[in-house]
Amino acid sequence: RRLSRRPAATLLDVFRQHARRQPRRPLLLFQEEVYTFEDVERRSNRAAWALSRRLGLRSGRTVAVLLPNEPAYVWTWLALAKLGCPMACLNCNVRGRALRHALEAAQATLVLASPGERGQRGVGDTRRHGGLWSP
To answer: Cβ of 41: how many Cβ atoms within 10 Å?
Structure first.
């Protein structure tokens, strides 16, 4: 039924539905930390607010994301979906020419990277932008 709905239900729609119906239900377990739907909804809303208000990010702008496999990846993706921004997922292990090629192919106007990626060769100097880099 969901696939035949017009417009089609998105993963964001399904997430929001679960967050409304079962906010305290566990969604993520990372190491010893449990994140509920409510936790992830709150964090993704804060991230969306920061991306739109502080960076002026608007719908339709592609954002490249260079984050390790951690919970922040989930709420970053949700935040971008809430803003209507396509997300180009970049592999944290890729560097140099391969990373440059991925960035060019994505046509991203902004790169979000974790602090661990700062100053890495091929990523760009993120020290001035607190984890953000505009190609």
So the answer is: 20
